[in-house]
TrEMBL record:
<dbReference type="InterPro" id="IPR013011">
    <property type="entry name" value="PTS_EIIB_2"/>
</dbReference>
<keyword id="KW-0805">Transcription regulation</keyword>
<dbReference type="InterPro" id="IPR036634">
    <property type="entry name" value="PRD_sf"/>
</dbReference>
<feature type="domain" description="PRD">
    <location>
        <begin position="322"/>
        <end position="429"/>
    </location>
</feature>
<dbReference type="InterPro" id="IPR002178">
    <property type="entry name" value="PTS_EIIA_type-2_dom"/>
</dbReference>
<dbReference type="GO" id="GO:0009401">
    <property type="term" value="P:phosphoenolpyruvate-dependent sugar phosphotransferase system"/>
</dbReference>
<feature type="domain" description="PTS EIIA type-2">
    <location>
        <begin position="530"/>
        <end position="669"/>
    </location>
</feature>
<protein>
    <submittedName>
        <fullName>PTS transporter subunit EIIA</fullName>
    </submittedName>
</protein>
<feature type="domain" description="PTS EIIB type-2">
    <location>
        <begin position="430"/>
        <end position="522"/>
    </location>
</feature>
<dbReference type="Pfam" id="PF00359">
    <property type="entry name" value="PTS_EIIA_2"/>
</dbReference>
<keyword id="KW-0677">Repeat</keyword>
<dbReference type="Pfam" id="PF00874">
    <property type="entry name" value="PRD"/>
</dbReference>
<dbReference type="InterPro" id="IPR016152">
    <property type="entry name" value="PTrfase/Anion_transptr"/>
</dbReference>
<keyword id="KW-0804">Transcription</keyword>
<dbReference type="InterPro" id="IPR036388">
    <property type="entry name" value="WH-like_DNA-bd_sf"/>
</dbReference>
<dbReference type="GO" id="GO:0006355">
    <property type="term" value="P:regulation of DNA-templated transcription"/>
</dbReference>
<dbReference type="InterPro" id="IPR011608">
    <property type="entry name" value="PRD"/>
</dbReference>
């Protein structure tokens, strides 16, 4: 049976019957990544083989479906039956909405009838949701003769609504949003689930605050404010208001850091190590006053303080709303740590400091209060800059230090974006030699393309193929070759093959190689090599759940004395808060360094990708590493980023059929042999 994505792909193939179709075209038409398309094409190929359907694969060109009319009819029939039943994500979205809205008369039978699936499917959905909702403080109850309902604090219910209700429950369309910073998709979700009028009022309130305080909120925090405020207005409208004891006004960052009372402060003043910011409270009062004057809705004091909390989680494009000593301290510690880890001088980069100073106060508040944002660049960053994202993942330890909470991958991706920009602004240039077989004139054209597209690179020499053996005579950091040579030079860590056309993939590979070179190739490679051994490589078949895979892996490390028993709890707790998938179907789960007895990396190879949060993973690097040690961390990421950056490296690792072969493949890719 085909999965939802497999069915979507084969429908598109049927639409282009007897035509050549590329995986890139399928990705564009289905809204999936090209990597995901290639993964699900295996499933589609199996389906075609089982049903005697011809899918002609033409390497380098694409694939050509040659289906009969009867076979196309069968595909449409399968699609019709599948579309009659709602996908699992949308089912769980609907069930979450009903339970969180407090409609407690629903039963398994009623959900089954409305969603056109069996009661057993509904039971499985609710069992999964029960575990996920618990992370937000929401408990699902099943009472015979009464129904299924959920309980939790009003504050937790609002956070859960934002997280779980991500699909519209009806079909009201939004043609144009009231502000370009609010996406149509987000507007449709809010309008359908929490009423259009609440969305309009939320946007009006934010606009009023912007005018009154001369501030322009960033795109992603404007959308965050619109979502959470609209949900708050929806809850107030159904008489589900915050209680005075639910929003502890003293429970701010200052108390987390100091254990002290908030005390008093004047306008614009920030208490030592504190997040008590009068300006945010003034914003909330202005927004509430506007709502009462123009819409006749009066908010209680807890609701006004809830607005203040939301405004403390927002950033302005034109100025820093409010800084705090937490943010300044984290900024310094993060930049020093990343400078050491990346072997780059980020400490004196004022543009990076300025962007971090603007971003961190809101980011820290969001992490502390559990407020979520959507990063529009997340997918691009994790796919195109997986290595940098992975390195920046380690700064989550500073959030934990000051807030006691883990930042989301959306927050980490913004830091990666800022650090990436700083690296590109650094004056360091990679000196490259270009080797080709087409003559100096053609080589000059290729060199010009490279320098135009990758500003970090300066071509210092253009050599013909007969000069390969004399490459050591040239002072260079990078060797680019349009010849896929079999000479020993391809073993040189500076070597990179590129096509004469300099494709988008070539450009990406060059950028990644530059990143590797500019971030310190002098790491203690031998230290990382000692963390990897065949004994700690596992091949798992028929794995289905991330939690089960991690439990078994952690137990192996515990049994071997590598980590303490608390390490497993750390790993699972981190995954509950934020999945550790970093792109390329790879995940890097890890625990706290204080529970590591000695550094070790456990590699887990799955026969099929499984869900890892919002992504998929089939190769897991479980890190028992002391991230407090810059040398150890640098040693790991120096080589790990090579695996992510090197074109085709992870695919070659997946070809290994045993722990011995995989260990040998990793060593070969990293040049340890």
């Amino acid at each position: 049976m085909l999965s939802e994505k497999g069915l979507l792909i084969i429908e598109k193939l049927a639409e282009h019957n007897n035509e050549l179709v590329t995986s890139k075209a399928l990705a564009a038409s289905t809204g999936m990544s090209e990597r995901s398309v290639k993964t699900y094409l295996k499933e589609v190929a199996d389906f075609c083989e089982q049903n005697s359907m011809t899918l002609d694969r033409k390497p380098g060109k694409g694939m050509k479906p040659c289906f009969s009319d009867a076979q196309i009819g069968k595909i449409l029939d399968v699609a019709g039956r599948r579309s009659a039943a709602v996908s699992q994500k949308k089912r769980q979205n609907y069930i979450s909405y009903i339970l969180l809205s407090g409609w407690d008369t629903y039963t398994y039978a009623l959900f089954s009838e409305e969603l056109n699936v069996s009661k057993n499917v509904i039971m499985d959905d609710i069992n999964e949701l029960d575990a996920e909702l618990l992370l937000y403080g929401i408990k699902v109850h099943r009472t015979a003769g009464y129904g299924i309902y959920a309980t939790g604090s009003e504050l937790d219910i609002r956070k859960a609504m934002r997280h779980f209700c991500r699909y519209p429950i009806s079909d009201k369309q939004v043609i144009k949003t009231d502000d370009h910073r609010l996406s149509r998709r987000a507007a449709e979700v809010i309008a359908n689930n929490f009423r259009s009028v609440n969305l309009s009022m939320a946007v009006d309130m934010i606009h009023h605050v912007e005018r009154r305080f001369d501030i322009i909120f960033t795109d992603y925090t404007f959308q965050m404010l619109a979502e959470y405020i609209a949900i708050a207005l929806f809850r107030v409208d159904v008489e589900k208001e915050l209680k005075p004891d639910e929003l502890d006004l003293s429970n701010r960052m200052c108390d987390v850091a100091n254990g002290e009372d908030a005390g008093t402060e004047t306008e614009q003043q920030v208490q030592k190590n504190g997040f008590i910011m009068t300006e945010h409270e003034n914003m909330a009062k202005e927004a509430a006053g506007f709502l009462e004057r123009y819409h006749g809705i009066s908010l209680s004091q807890p609701e006004i303080m809830y607005l203040a909390m939301l405004f403390s989680c927002a950033e302005g494009q034109n100025r820093v709303v409010m800084s705090c000593e937490e943010a300044l301290s984290i900024e310094d510690e993060m930049i020093v740590y990343l400078s050491n880890l990346l072997a780059a001088n980020l400490i004196e980069n004022e543009l990076l400091r300025e962007s971090m100073r603007s971003f961190l106060p809101g980011s820290i508040a969001r992490t502390h209060f559990g407020i979520e944002i959507d990063n529009p660049f997340l997918s691009d960053i994790t796919q195109s800059y997986a290595s940098l994202f992975t390195v920046c993942f380690t700064v989550s330890r500073y959030y934990e230090k000051y807030t006691g909470a883990m930042p989301s991958e959306n927050e980490i991706a913004f830091i990666a974006l800022q650090v990436g920009g700083a690296l590109h602004r650094n004056p360091m240039t990679v000196r490259a030699v270009l080797i080709g077989a087409a003559g100096y004139a053609t080589g000059s054209i290729i060199a010009g393309k490279i320098e135009n597209r990758v500003p970090d690179v300066r071509i210092v020499s253009i050599l013909s193929s007969d000069r390969i053996e004399h490459i050591d005579e040239y002072d260079c950091d990078l060797i680019l070759s349009t010849i896929d040579t079999q000479a020993d030079i391809h073993k040189d860590m500076r070597f990179l093959y590129v096509s004469p056309l300099i494709s988008a993939q070539d450009e990406k590979n060059i950028r990644n190689k530059c990143f590797e070179l500019m971030t310190g190739q002098s790491a203690e490679v031998s230290e990382f090599s000692q963390m990897l051994s065949e004994e700690f490589i596992i091949f798992e078949k028929k794995a289905k759940k991330r939690k089960d895979v991690l439990k078994r892996a952690c137990q192996l490390l515990i049994n071997k004395g590598i980590v303490q028993s608390e390490f497993a709890r750390d790993v699972l707790e981190r995954e509950k808060v934020e999945a550790t998938a970093v792109g390329c179907n790879i995940a890097i789960p890890h625990g706290k360094p204080e529970h590591v007895n000695r550094c070790q990396i456990l590699v887990i190879r799955l026969d099929k990708p499984i869900e890892w949060g919002e992504r998929m993973a089939d190769m897991i690097f479980l890190l028992a590493i002391n991230f407090d040690s810059v040398n150890t961390t640098k040693a790991f990421f120096h080589d790990f980023t090579k695996l992510l950056n090197e074109n085709g490296a992870t695919d070659r690792l997946r070809e290994a059929a045993s722990p011995h072969e995989l260990c040998a493949a990793i060593r070969k890719e990293l040049g340890w042999n």
